[in-house]
C-alpha cells in the first residue's frame, strides 16, 4: 500500500515539510496551478450558466503524471496548497485529476511551516471548501468576461495588443483622475507669520499665528502680512494658556498584506512585487542551521489582524526577557478584525519570536533580513505597553491675535522602543520641540516676527505605497493582487513610473477615457468595490455565485454591445483637440498608430499634416514642430538637385529638394560604406559577405554585399562562430526581455541556443 500523499503548491516547501513529517507521507508539489481557462479563447459558456472550460496548462501534464505516480494506490490524499482562494482552486483541480474509487481527499491549511503547525494542520484536516472555490472561480470568470470582451474593442478602436481588466483599468482610472486634478489645480498664494520668542531663561521657541478675534486667520498676500506685522509691533505678547497632558499611544496591529507592502515600500524602498517575493521566501522556509529549512513567518497573503493566543503569549515572554517587565503587558493584546473574509488566516508574524533578527543574521540575505526585521519588530511591538507622551500647548495673546506653540516629549517609550511606522516617525519628529517652562500671564520677549510666502500645492501623484493604500481603502482588488496590479499597469504602458511616482502615459489617458465613457459602471470605483464585497460573500455563503454573475453580465453586455458601435475610433476619427491644422485650418485630432500617438489633420486624406506632440503641465496639447530642412552636400542622382535632411517617423532621411516633381529619397547612411560582419554569405555560388545595412525606414538589417545579384537578408545580427551542434558556419544574435541576449542556430532541425 502506497503511503498517504501530501500535495503542496510550491516545490520549495517540500524539503521543510519532509523534515518535520519524516517518511510518513509522500510529499509532492503542483508548482502552482495545473488547470486554467484557455489562453486563446474566452473559455466561458455564457449560455450554460457561465460554465468555465478548464484545460491542463501547457507544460503541466508532466506535473500531473508525477502526481498520479506519487499517489499510486494511496487511499488518503492530503491537499495542502496555500490557504487562500487560489490554493483552494489548486486543491480542487488536483482532486479532479487524482479522483479514484475509494480514494479520500482532505484539505490541509498550513499557515506556518513549523513542525507543530504542520502536524496540527494535518490532524485538523477538513473537506474541500466549495464556497471558497466558487468565490475564486467567480472572480476568474468575471475577470475573463471583462478582459476578453473589452480588449478586442481596444484592438479595433485604438491599437493591437492593448488590454483592459476589471481591476487594472480601475487602478489606471484612479491614477488618471489624480493627474487631471493636478492639471486643473490653480495654486493660491498665502502667508504665515512666525514669532520667535523667549523668556528670561532659554531656549528661544517658535509660535505660529493662528487666529484673529477668535477666528482662524487667512493671510492672502504680502500687503496683508505687513499690515498685521505693523499691528503686532504695538502689542505685548502674553502667555494666555498653558496646557500639559500625558497622552497614551497604542501600537499598530501586526501586518496584513497591504500594510506590509506599504511599509516595505516606504521604509525599505522595496516594490510591492519584491516585498511579496521576499515574504514568500521567508514563509516557505530557509536553512537557519537547525538541520534543514524552517518557515520563518506565517502566511503572507491575509486581510486578518487575528493572532494566535500562543504566539502572543510567547511574545510576552521574550519582551520580559529582552526589555524588562515594565514593557510587557499583563495579558496578550488582540486586535479587532474589520473584515471577515479570509479570517482563517492570522496576521503576518514570526513563526517564533525567539528567532530574533540578531540570531538569523548569518542565514538571511540582506533583503530577507530587512523584511524579516520589519515583521518581527511590528509583531513584538504589538504586544508591548503603550507609549506615554508629554504634550505641551502654549497659547499666546498679542492684542487681537493669537499664537500657538506646541511640543512633545516621550515620558515612556513603550512599544516605540522597538518599532514605529513611517508615519509615526514623521509625526514624532515634527513634535520634537523643546518649550521652556511657562505660566499664564508671563510677558514674552519678541526676538523676531518672520512673515513667509507660501503657495498651495496640488494633490500629489501616487507612489506605490499610496496607490496600494488607495486601492485598499476603496476596496479595489485584494491584498494578494496589489503587486500584480501595479506590475501590469506598468508593463502595459498605461502609466510611467517617474522618480517613484505614477503618471499616466498618453496611451493610458486615451484608453482610460474610452473605457470610462463606454463602461461608466464597470470601471467605476464604487461598483468595483461592491463586486469585491459580493465575491467575499460567496465564500461566506452570503450569496450565490451564479446570481452575482447573472446580475453583472446583463448590464455589462448592453454596454459592450453599445460600445462596439459608439466607441470613438482612435485609428479612424481620433480624439478632437482645440488645435487647427496649420496647412488647411481644419481640426487636429489625436490618433494612435503602430509607432505611438500623434496628431493628424481631420481633413485626411486631402491634407496629410501629422506631428508628434507633448502636453504641458495643464494637459494642453502642443505639436512638436520639425526643424527647418537642412541642405546637404549630396546631389539627387535623378534630377541633380541638392538633397535635404528631413525628420520622418522612422528617423532622419534624405529627400530631394525638387519635391513634389522629384520624389527621390534615400537612407541617411546610403553614402556610407556598409559595416562588415565577417560572415560569408551562405547562398550557394555566392562569394559575397553579409554586411550591416539600413532599410528605407531606418531599421538595421543584414544582407549580402552582392545585392541586387544576391538577395539574402536577415533581421538578426550574424556572428562568425560555427554552431557547436550542427557545424553551421554562423550563429545569430537575438534579444528578448525575458532571456536577454543569446546566440542561436538558424537551422530549425538543430535548435541550438546559448
Task: Describe the fold and architecture.
- The protein starts with a strand and ends in a 10-residue tail after the last strand.
- Helix content is 32%, strand content 25%.
- The protein has 754 residues and is α+β, with helices and mostly antiparallel strands.
- The chain has a six-stranded antiparallel beta barrel. Strands 2-1-7-8 form a four-stranded parallel beta sheet, sandwiched between helices.
- It has 18 helices and 36 strands.
- The longest helix has 28 residues, at 130-157.
- The model has no long low-confidence stretch (mean pLDDT 90).
For the biggest β-sheet, the strand order reads: 9-10-16-15-12-17
In DSSP terms (H or I, runs of 4 or more residues), the helix count works out at 18
Secondary-structure content class: alpha+beta
Low-confidence stretches: none
Radius of gyration: 34 Å
Summarize the biggest pleated sheet. Answer: 6 strands, antiparallel, barrel
- Could you estimate the helical fraction of the residues in percent? 25-40%
Residue share in β-strands: 25-35%
Mean of pLDDT: 90
Shape: globular
The number of E-state strands comes to 36
The rounded distance between the terminal residues' Cα atoms is: 46 Å
